[in-house]
C-alpha cells in the first residue's frame, strides 16, 4: 500500500515538500488555513483541504492518526506549530517532522515529542558549506 502523508502549511517549504512527495507518487493530503494556498495545491496533492490544525476536532475529523507521516510546515506562527505538533503526538502519529523557526522552537518541539525537527535555512547552509569544502578538497 502507498504511504500516506499529510503536509500542514503550504508555504515555500511545505509547498515544495508536498509537490515533491506527489511527484514521487505518494498519497498526500495538503492542509492550510489559507484557501488560496489550498487551491494552488488542489491539482498537485491527492487531496487539499482548508483547515485550522490547532483545532483538535478538525484533526480528528481528518483522521490524522491514520497517516504514516505528517509534516508540520507552519513557520511564523510558533504557537500554532507547537500546538499542532502536540496534538499529533497525542494522537499517536508514527512519524512527525516539524519545521523549526529558531533554536527555542526546536527545543520545545523536541521536548514535546516531534520525531524529527528540521531547520531548513540552517540545515541547507551547513550542507552547502560541506559541499563547498569537499569540492575544494577534490579540486586540489
Ligand atoms: P516558508 O518560508 O516555507 O514560505 P513561512 O515561514 O513563510 O514558510 P508561514 O507563512 O508562516 O510559513 O506558514 C506556512 C503556512 O502555514 C501558511 O500558508 C499558513 O497559512 C499556514 N498555517 C499557519 N497556521 C496554520 C494552522 N493553524 N493550520 C493550518 N495552516 C496554517
Automatic annotation (TrEMBL):
Record GO terms (molecular function): monoatomic cation transmembrane transporter activity
One BP term from GO: potassium ion transport
Domain RCK N-terminal: 2-118
Domain of life: Bacteria
Protein name: Potassium transporter Trk
Stretch of the intact protein here: 1 to 140 of 222
Amino acid at each position: 500500500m502507498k504511504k500516506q502523508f499529510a503536509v500542514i502549511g503550504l508555504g515555500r517549504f511545505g509547498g515544495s515538500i508536498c509537490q515533491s512527495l506527489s511527484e514521487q507518487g505518494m498519497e498526500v493530503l495538503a492542509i492550510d488555513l489559507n484557501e488560496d494556498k489550498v487551491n494552488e495545491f488542489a491539482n498537485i496533492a491527492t487531496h487539499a483541504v482548508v483547515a485550522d490544525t490547532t483545532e483538535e476536532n478538525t484533526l480528528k475529523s481528518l483522521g490524522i492518526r491514520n497517516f504514516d507521516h505528517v509534516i508540520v510546515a507552519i513557520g511564523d506562527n510558533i504557537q500554532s506549530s507547537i500546538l499542532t505538533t502536540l496534538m499529533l503526538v497525542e494522537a499517536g502519529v508514527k512519524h512527525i517532522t516539524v519545521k523549526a523557526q529558531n533554536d527555542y522552537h526546536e527545543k520545545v518541539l523536541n521536548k514535546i515529542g516531534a520525531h524529527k525537527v528540521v531547520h531548513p535555512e540552517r540545515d541547507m547552509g551547513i550542507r552547502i558549506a560541506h559541499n563547498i569544502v569537499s569540492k575544494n578538497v577534490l579540486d586540489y
